[in-house]
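Page 42, continued from yesterday. The earlier attempt failed because a stray header line got pasted into the input along with the sequence. Redoing it now with the clean sequence only.
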Amino acid sequence: MVERFNATLRCQVKRLSRLTLAYTRKLDNLVYALSLYLAVYNWTRIPRTLRCTPAMAVGLARKPLDLVDLLWLAA
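This time it went through. Structure tokens are written below.
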């Protein structure tokens, strides 16, 4: 399961793949990009295997958040 998540992370966040034009010069920008991806992954994305978001699976949310709600919470 960890290997699948690592592969998904590398495919979705181009800053982590090798030989790419989307590299990060500042460490802060990499942290922000990863934080945004992990928030979307855990709170809005519904994987086919779970049929609910990971936050719903552990009982942190009742329904998946849309991107507007997620950005509102971050502000």
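Notes: The CA atoms of residues 67 and 73 lie 10 Å apart.
Reminder to self: strip header lines before submitting.
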